[in-house]
Amino acid sequence: MKNVVTNWFSKPWYPIVLSAYPVLALLSANTGQIRPTTGVRPLAISMALGGLLFFLVWLLFRQVHKAAFLTTLFLTLFFTYGHAFIYIDEEYPKTNYTTWLAAGWIVLLLLSIFWTTRPKLTFVSSASTLNTVALALLIMPVGQIIFGSGPRGAHALGLKNAAVDSDLVRPENPPDVYFFILDSYGRSDLLYSAYGFDNSEFDSELEKRDFFVAKCSQSNYVRTEISLGSSLNMQYLQGLDESFTPKSTSRRVLWDSLKHSAVRYNFENMGYQTVSYETGFAWLDLTDTDHFMSPPPIYSGLTEFEGLFLRTTAARFTQDLGLVDPDYLLGVGFRDRFNYVFNSMEYVSKIQQPTFSYIHVISPHPPFVFDPEGNPTYPPDFWNDQRQYPSDLYQIGYVNQFQYLNKNMLEAIDTIVANSETPPIIIIQGDHGPWLQPKEKRFWNLTAIYFPEHQDQLYSTITPVNIFRLVFNTYFGGKYDILEDVSYFSPVPNLYDFSKIPNSCSHPDN
After folding, report:
1. Can you name the residues that pair with 487 across neighbouring β-strands?
2. What's the pLDDT tens digit per position in 391-400?
3. C-alpha 252, offset from chain centre
4. 496-501, long-range: CB within 8 Å, 24+ apart, which pairs?
5. pLDDT (tens digit, 9 = 90+) per residue, 168-210?
6. What residues does 359 pair with on adjacent strands?
7. What phi and psi values does residue 56 have, to the nearest 5 degrees?
8. 16, 143, 158, 454: which could join 260 in a potential S-S bond, CB 3.0 to 4.6 Å?
9. Contact by Cβ (8 Å): 57, 70
């Protein structure tokens, strides 16, 4: 056995193994934000290209160990170019470095060929060491991917102290429940004061459909993960878990609490089927629901992760030359997911079993991919050279996007109601307000609720933490206390360092 292992390690297969490392390292760095399966295709392509390059270099020199070592140097230069490019771009954004960086990499390539091809160097004795190093490099990212993204089954809870209620009763004719999260959708008074856009027509159309529109609603928190972590678990985060401390920057428990929340647990415990949609962000995706709705791959086949991977390698030249445009494909992916949500409402609304549908729409949140009529827009048109959103361009893209979203939401509501034998419960909520607003206005979110025969239970200052408490109390015999409606600001990266923000709404209905 020892001889077999020694013989195996003496052969130079390390270039192919090393060609897998950049993909796995990037995947592990984004564990929790993208699904591991996203890396399968770039991993296969990267290893195949590594093997092909190894074969071509061997054909040129006919010395397998020399070819393996030179291939490794080629791969190192290829996979590090994009990282060097990104680092210099971030540190020295006003420097014209592209030509010099490319020239430097070409010089390094030529020096690698010159040094490696010297007759006295065979690299035979280094094969075993380099094989061991190659395998060792893979251990950390593979371990992080495996242990950082392990699936959990349904009926799990992300928080031990989540506010579940095992005594809830499913009525004889249970209503379907739809929870639409419209990411970053602001309250109408904010849209008017910040952008000069009168959104009252949308509010009126909702009210014509018997929705209660909360004129003074606020989110409890100012970022998606903490806002949803609270609303889906029907509690404030402070003290809910030992990891939610002011100095903590960890999000692992928080993300798990989104996927396996008290709200989901309650509905599953009552025998409801669960429905969720792919968002493009793995930490938001509830992939283990009964119906996980995901559109077919975009026609080009290039995902956001693959676009990111391209930008970290010398293949970014394909983007510079116009051969591949990851930003265009980013827009295609977001449009596909958006359209898939609203095109599938007919199917979801006709599921025979009672359903709880969690529908997180990444809109009007950037990237901005629609104009008001639904025509495609190009995401980079709304950001600067550092891929940041200037306030004027953000305003244009945001207003464009929510107008098209309004049209789709009204059509979705009509479809759901028309296909429902029992009047459904429909919650439409912005997880927070738009970006680039003063601290207190970033909480001014849209809240609109279809609450058949019980609209009198709702009130204008309602916050997300109480919405499902009211749902379970009103329709399923719950006994939840209604909490004080409070909003808390916290900075990045210390998401749990909270400070209280008052509700200053002066609407006549308040």
Report:
1. 501
2. 999 999 999 9
3. 14
4. 496/226, 496/237, 496/238, 496/244, 496/245, 496/246, 496/248, 497/246, 497/247, 498/221, 498/237, 498/238, 498/246, 501/218, 501/439, 501/440, 501/443
5. 999 999 999 999 999 999 999 999 999 999 999 999 999 999 9
6. 180
7. -65, -40
8. 158
9. yes
